[in-house]
Amino acid sequence: MKGLTRVDHEGKQMFGWLARVYGGGQTFSKYFSDKRYGGKEASREQAVTYLEIQTKEVREKFADYNPRQNQPLFRKRPGTANKTGVVGIHRCETVTRGKNTLYWAATWNENGKPKDKKFYFRRDEYDTKLRSEEEAKKMAIEWRARKLLEMSGVKLPDFSGRRAQRKLRKQQKALEQATLRTWVPGLTISDWSSSLGFIDQADERNIKKREKFTEKKVADLIDFLGVSAALFDWKDIDYEFGRGVFKGDVRSRCFWNKRGIRMDAMVTEDSKICLIQSLAPDPYYLENAPAAQKAQAS
Questions:
Q1: Is the separation of the CB atoms in 74 and 109 below 8 Å?
Q2: Tens digit of pLDDT for each residue in 184-234?
Q3: Cα gap 60→92, rounded to integer Å
């Protein structure tokens, strides 16, 4: 019988029945001991009666309950099973009509219902009919970021019509040709990498020194990322603490907010920028920040 479990535990001297009912995101349970209720069959009868009454009450009480109603509109941190480091993005390999199908998917919740959008990519470099895997992953990241903005109440342009589609293609072409020149002196960044993501703790690479940091650099970086910037937390950046310069890496930088959360902006050899944001305060910040900031971060 559903919800009814027999308990026979010699070590704890427990012999009886456990009745459990689930509803409204809660568990309602009661244990019926053989000794208390006069034997195995008598205790079972009591447990079954409780189960029937409690099931009816729970169904009436939580008739309109939506199991997703208390969930946030969107997740800000990767789940424990997330292997990509990017929230709501995952890679899939399936078999469709006997052929292997590969795609990156963006997932989100809309009105309490799970939604997803798939972006297929080619199996090898010789297949020119589909986009590359990196392009598919970037499209999935941008799609979820756009949905995140929409659910936050930000009005985005509607590109459903033909004229709007042409406008969108022009914008995308302009973005492809755009460069970020203000990030590091003398360095031109041509694109952002599909390896955007989050880690539990900041990278352990050594910081050589800190330099001055301005709001303009962050504003230019956000503009360069476009809608994908919505994936990250840009609040309360500690401009006074400055920006970190890594030992042995003159292209990359890092910076912190006033809670000690660190953002690494890593520039690759092919002039792409990859952002990695930590989820916990950075030990370097906790050790070197002024006392007031340390207290806020801890």
A1: yes
A2: 888 899 889 888 888 888 777 889 999 999 999 999 999 999 889 988 989
A3: 40
Paired sense of beta strands 197-199 and 272-278, if any: parallel
β-partners of residue 210 are 244
Mean pLDDT across the stretch 51-75? Answer: 71
Contacts of 16 (CB under 8 A, 6+ apart): 7, 31, 32, 33, 34, 35, 36, 37, 43, 47
What are the pLDDT digits (tens) for 165-180? 676 666 666 655 668 9
Answer whether residue 132 shows pLDDT above 50. yes
Asked whether 112 and 68 are in contact (CB, 8 A), the reply is yes
Question: Coil, strand, or helix at residue 265?
Answer: strand
DSSP E strands: which ranges in 41-112?
89-96, 99-110
Nearest 10 degrees: CA dihedral of 275, 258, 73, 133?
A: 0
Render the burial of 30-63: b for 16+ CB within 10 Å, e for the rest: eebebeebeeeeebbebbbebbeebbeebeeeee
Question: Rg of the Cα trace of the chain?
Answer: 27
Tokens describing residue 105:
């998917």
Average pLDDT of the chain is 83
In angstroms, how far is the first alpha carbon of the chain from the final one?
50
Output the pTM of the full model.
0.62
